Structures are given as C-alpha cells and as structure tokens.
C-alpha cells in the first residue's frame, strides 16, 4: 500500500472514530452525561470561569490536578454545553486513535498501524468512556502521546530535543492524573538504555532534559499549591486515597464493588476518639487532613503486613481482570468482555513477535507502564477506568500480531508478504527504507513542535532505517 493511500485510510478511520463516539454520546443524551460522570470536575470548571479559582471549597484547593477542569472550562465557558463537551472529547478519542497508529507503525509496520488504529476506533470501552465526564479520555491521549514521543528519541539525531518534548507531555499527563508519577523514574532508565551507541554525555543530557522539563511543567502548579495550601504537592488527595486502600473495611465491598462503598463503610466504622482527632485535623486545614489520613493508613499497614500484601494482589488482579470493576450489568459486562479479552490474547502474540525479533525497547516501554500502574494500584487501589489507558498498548501489540499473522497467511513460506508496490516488509528495498524513514518526519510534523524537531527525527530516521 502506498503512503498516500495509507494516510487516506487512516483519515477515514479517525473520522469514523470521532463520529461513532459523538453519535453514541448524543444518543445517550445530556441528562445521562451530567448525572453519571464526575460532576465535581465541571464544578471546578465553573469555579475557574466565574471566580478564577480551582478551590472547590476550603478543604479541596489542591485535591484535584488542574488540566481536565481547565479543559472543560475552555470548552464550555462554565455553561452546561453538553454538545460542545461531546464534540471536544470525541476529538480527544480520535487523537488517541492517531497515537495508536503511530505507536504500531513505530514498533511494527504500516499495516499494523492501520489495524491498531481501527481497533482503537472501535474498542467498546473507549467508544463509551472517551466522551464521559471524567478525565480518563484526556489522560489516555496524553500518556499515548508521551509514549509515542519517547519512542521517537532513539531515532533522533539530537535526542535531547525530542526528550524535552516527551518530558513536556509527561508533565501535562501528570497534571491530568498524578498517578503517572511512578512512570517517570522508569522512563528515565528506559531513555538511558534506548541510546546504547550514544556518547555518555549525550545520554546524560537526554535523561536530564527529560526530567528537567517534567519539573518545569509541574513547577507552576507546585508553586501555586505552596502559596495556597502551604505545601509543594501535586495533590492533597494522596493521604485519603491511601487510607481508603488500607483500612479494615477496604475489602468489604471492593474489588467486586465500588471503592466508594468501602470508603463509606470505613467512615461509619471510625471510633469516637478517631472522630475527635479528625475534627482537629479539619480545623487545621487541607494538608493536616491529608496527613491525618496518611498516618492512619500507615498505622494499618504496619499492624497488618500480611493482609496488606494479600490485598495488594487482589487490587492488581481486579484491575486487569476480564470483568468490569466495579461490576456492572450483564449487558455492560458482555460488551466489555468481547473487546478486552481478544485484545489481551492478541497482545500476548504481539509481545512474543517483538521478542522473537529482539525488539526489546518497545517491550520495555510497555513494561514500564505496566510496572508503574501496578505499583500505584497495589499501594492505593484501582478500577477498570484507571487501567483503561493501558489498553492502547495492548491494542498496539494486538495490531502487530494480526499484521504478522496476515503476512504468514499470504505467504506460506513464512516470509513477509509484499505490499501493493511489490516491496517486502521484512526485507525492504531502497524505496521501502525511504518510506519507513519518512514516517518519522510525518510524526514530527503532525505534532506541535518546532521545525528543528522535524529535521532531527527525519535525519536520524534515515540513518537508522538505511542501516537495516
């Protein structure tokens, strides 16, 4: 398939992704949107527009990170504009489709890119939740764009610049949902390993630039929180989340039910003495309340190490399980299962395919995401919606496996099947090498970065692919 035709097909897939998300959300209607989503995000957006503040009340000035409320404020202007949010978040979902295409082409080939894009466009969970009143869709796009940028670093002649761009995207993703924080140190190690042939000075500059830009992006929010709540923190939610995940009632309803029900049971079980100290913490302010919950959580962990370890395994297992967490109705369970189970099975084949070709860097990048999420879930807790951003990488691996199976099916001798121009994917001609190298230029031009980035990726891409 020629590059022009491939991009035309991609455009159709992206258009279908946007259209199907928007149509389903419009059919479900505005009442369903405002009542079943996380309405506090829209309350924050209204506060931002009307009062120029992100303080929902005196005890939640730094409780939620700011980027999704800012997104809602820009889209709605503080009014209940259901159609505007539906259109904007459908575009966010379409952006995730583009990232899936870029990742699959980066890790496998162009055919895998189109397959991954189509799977992402039609993935049932994304189709429904990309337009819900929650930060999940925006977070999924931000993390996918971060991963795509990180994958471009080894192809760049000057990887420091691309690492800076990846660091900026990482910081933005953390301002959507701070649970990405454990991914940063793992990504630093990945960046070091991704440049084995570079000079030590280049590797240090690349790693340092990535970390430095992450800090620069987060610095305004940390400084604001220092002034408002007296602490340079991403969120004052950590203590409460840790307590919800570590108390005698944590597993009373969770993981088969919502963690909110377990939290309600934990509140009801507080002793009178604990309520008195809690009231004192409330009087001292937001950070004191955060410290109170954190102290209670650590006290429980120290007193029940065995139960804590067992609960951690159940939390991680529930987040990756084939059933929705919390459990929904039979129809929702069925729709989710017919999307998630095949993707997981095919992703295993894609991972094996990369390992057989000794493509360790993409596998390591997937592993970094898995490790970071599993760590957060084990320490705190997690539902299906928290894990769903990882489904992009499962879909990318599934697309690569399906592309490889297609090649084997069309060529009984086991060689990769030629495309419409007669070029071989596994043993590319000069024209195929040029097409593969030009994709890095396409990715760079599709992203809002300076022209120098395009030149860097393009030149390095030509060197890398011409040497294969």
How far the N terminus sits from the C terminus, by CA atoms, comes to 21 Å
In terms of structural class, how would the helical and strand content be classed? mainly alpha
Which band does the percent of strand residues land in?
Answer: under 5%
User: In oligomeric terms, what are we looking at?
Assistant: single chain
Structural summary, described in words:
The chain starts with a helix and ends with a helix. With 468 residues, it is an all-alpha fold. Helices cover 74% and strands 0% of the residues. The protein has 22 helices and no strands. The protein is globular, with a radius of gyration of 23 Å. Helix 3 (39-51) crosses helix 4 (67-76), helix 5 crosses helix 20 (391-410) and helix 6 packs across helix 20. Mean pLDDT is 87; it is low at 414-437 and 439-468. The chain has a domain at 238-303.
Give me some keywords for this one.
468 residues, 22 helices, disordered C terminus, globular, mainly alpha
Give a brief rundown of this model.
By secondary structure, the chain is mainly α. It has helices spanning 3-28, 30-36, 39-51, 67-76, 82-107, 110-122, 124-129, 136-152, 159-176, 183-193, 200-229, 238-245, 259-268, 272-284, 286-303, 305-320, 330-356, 360-379, 384-387, 391-410, 430-446, 451-466. Residues 414-437 and 439-468 have low confidence and may be disordered.
Q: How are the secondary structure elements laid out?
A:
Elements: H1 3-28, H2 30-36, H3 39-51, H4 67-76, H5 82-107, H6 110-122, H7 124-129, H8 136-152, H9 159-176, H10 183-193, H11 200-229, H12 238-245, H13 259-268, H14 272-284, H15 286-303, H16 305-320, H17 330-356, H18 360-379, H19 384-387, H20 391-410, H21 430-446, H22 451-466
